[in-house]
Amino acid sequence: MKKLFIAGHRGMVGTALIREAEKLGGFQIVTATRDQLDLCDQSAVFHFLATEKPDIVIIAAAKVGGIYANSTYPADFIYENLTIAANLVEGCRRAEVPRVLFLGSSCIYPKMAPQPMPEDCLLSSPLETSNEAYAIAKIAGLKLCQHYRAQHNLMYHSAMPTNLYGPGDNYHPENSHVIPALIRRFHEAAVSGAATVTIWGTGTPRREFLHVDDLATACFHLLSLDSPPDWVNVGIGDDVTIFELATLVAKTTGFTGQILTDPTKPDGTPRKLLDISKIQSTGWTPKVSFEAGLAAAYQDFLTSLSSGNTRL
Q1: Which residues are catalytic?
Q2: Distant-in-sequence, close-in-space partners of 38: CB < 8 Å, separation ≥ 6
Q3: Rounded to an integer, what distance in angstroms lies between the CA atom of residue 164 and that of residue 294?
Q4: Distance between CA atoms of 128 and 71, rounded to whole angstroms?
Q5: DSSP string, 175-223
Q6: Integer Rg of the chain from CA
Q7: How far apart are alpha carbons 128 and 131 in whole angstroms?
Q8: Residue 272: what pLDDT?
Q9: Which of 114, 207, 230, 290 has the most Cβ atoms closer than 10 angstroms to its Cβ?
Q10: CATH topology for 2-169+209-237+273-288?
């Protein structure tokens, strides 16, 4: 049985990883809450890893948010995410952890990257400014793993998922990602009988969305490989416009009013579609359809709402 430490186990990704690990079996899962372990505290992280001595560490911990949060708190995003990555990767080296999987984001790629975005377009041109701070921190984490693997002969590697959604998401009206934010807004509009809902931007940017359970299967697939790529994209290979997404969420939540756009708000990157041919060549493919995934995400929101826990 392998000892597995999941950093960030309470988040949407972390809980999906725990579900998948329990489903697969063969893992002794180690977790630590923020009160038990501050991942920005270097000495505490080093001590924890030296004491626990896990066989595998998955770095799913991060400070995350949507366009509003990234634009408003860039210093917080770059500092916390850089610190988490540096503390955990170096801590794992010192504790002689043989395997580390670092989770990044598709926002690491340039704003005007070729579409779909291959792994080798990294650092080829400027980033999208609205989430540059977060992206730079994630690039640093990826590069930490790449160079520790090369210099120290350690199997430290990374996965770069596209936009994620699913059970355990954060539905904060301002600091959440686009799908949970839209689910909340359209649900509230449907309940109140509102005639319209206005979405940020022009509605024309295209985005790709991956169900968090598909990411979890991809992570354990990568961990099963003897020699995975230094970093690999994880997505579904298809995308929709933000307006099309809003229409799907409206249908899912039962909102029948008019959807308006607000071009005075930022759109972000025009398109973010990942080239997933590399991970597909290793034998992994996504399974959850977008319609089924959205329906399940809405049910998760309703469950959270009824229990008084909407992760605000």
Answers
A1: 134
A2: 44, 45
A3: 11
A4: 11
A5: TS-HHHHHHHHHHHHHHHT-SEEEEEB-S--EE-EEEHHHHHHHHHHHH
A6: 19
A7: 6
A8: 86
A9: 207
A10: Rossmann fold (3.40.50)
